[in-house]
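FAQ: What does a ligand-bound record look like?

Like this one, built around 2-oxoglutaric acid:
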Amino acid sequence: MIAPLPLPLRSSQSPAHICPYDQTCSYLTQAAEELQMDRGLLAILSHPRKVVTVTIPVKLDNGEIEVLTGHRVQHCDVLGPYKGGTRYHPSVTLQEVSALAMLMTWKCALLGIPYGGAKGGIAIDPNQYSANELERITRRYTSELIKDIGPSVDIPAPDIGTSAREMAWMMDTYSMNVGHAVPGVVTGKPISIGGSKGREMATGRGVAIAIREALALQGKTLEGVRVVIQGFGNVGGAAAVLLHEAGAKVLAVSDVSGGIYAEKGLDIPALKVYWAQNGRKLAGYPEAEAVSNAELLTLPCDVLIPAALEDQITEENAHQVQAQIVAEAANGPVTLAADLILSDRGITVLPDILTNAGGVVVSYLEWVQGLSYVFWDEERVNKEMEGLMVHAFHRVTEQAKMRQVSLRVAAYTLGVGRVAQALSDRGLYP
Ligand SMILES: NC(=O)C1=CN([C@@H]2O[C@H](COP(=O)(O)OP(=O)(O)OC[C@H]3O[C@@H](n4cnc5c(N)ncnc54)[C@H](OP(=O)(O)O)[C@@H]3O)[C@@H](O)[C@H]2O)C=CC1
Ligand SMILES: O=C(O)CCC(=O)C(=O)O
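The answer part, i.e. the structure of the complex:
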């Protein structure tokens, strides 16, 4: 099911078509080499600690029964409770969820927040189900995981295809099962039940901060910078709004059906209104021309932001990317092969575990507020998140310089190094 310890991949080998889990393990192996880590320790970190697969029988609105499969993979809890999103998307597999769980471990460690890494998911297209069906699916999935989640065990959050609504159902189901309200079992929940101000925009805000810091290193600001964004959901939509507000020119955005492009820049506030009134779809927006998702990735721009799925920039299209910076707002949008091509072409890749960490940072702040029963205003939440993001960004760039490695390997080295140190200090490994 999960591959054993992977071989380190080198640019001389063909890393095409390598699965997401092996891809993540490959970066782990590179970090382990940088850290001269013991092979036994690497073997421990290459495997998830716990893999849970559950069967979710659901009665559909038409009375038929459908049986779904859900997963929750807990990679490592050495630094604290497992933490990570819950994805509803047809592409969900155990292997994908395992890769995403491992990414969460390095992301939390890199940002210095006291969590381990986990991820969950169900292979469904949520658009094909009614809200009532989704509620039944979410509640059954949560009930099946009842012994594996909890505010000091494993804390789910939104990811692709889920939002505050699903988190509220999860929180309610967990609370009913244990007999009292437990808001801390999930983050990204509605503010009315203990959610944090700023969480909805947090991942996009963090993406904008990472890009701003990267531009600053080149002596530039966001003013007038040409941006292209794949995905207009929780992350891509928020990044578009915030980058537009900061003076960047958002040339193109997309959803699953394709993209829209305006050379002079899109009026993002007007587009947001259109999108909301158009069933949360971009198609047909009058002030722009249609482009495919494939075309969008190769448009001329300064910053390309893949904010949808993994494996979007591959060895097939990496040569055509026309940006100076690729900011990975999604998890794993650039394949291993593409990463090498972009690097050879001198394109800066801001790695996912740094770039999209604003979401989990504000999830952590939400959890802290909930545990202390004190809730902050949005300004404070944003300021705390920005502080952690900027600090992590500069640690990564300094590490890259010191070790003469890519920003990704530097980020992994910092995250993996922190987990390895904790493992060793806890005596879990001699
Ligand atoms: N939510 C969060 O806080 C965090 C999310 N992430 C990562 O960010 C990425 C996006 O997540 P999020 O914004 O929450 O998810 P959403 O479900 O809110 O949005 C996903 C967006 O991607 C679009 N999309 C889906 N499939 C495709 C496709 N094949 N090609 C192009 N676009 C597509 C969707 O279009 P449509 O609406 O038409 O389906 C939608 O616009 C994921 O990789 C996630 O893991 C990372 C950190 C935190
Ligand atoms: O907010 C969280 O806890 C998790 C966010 C997430 O799933 C991610 O960063 O990929």
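Follow-up question: can I read anything off the structure? Yes, for example: Residues 1-13 have pLDDT under 50 and may be disordered.
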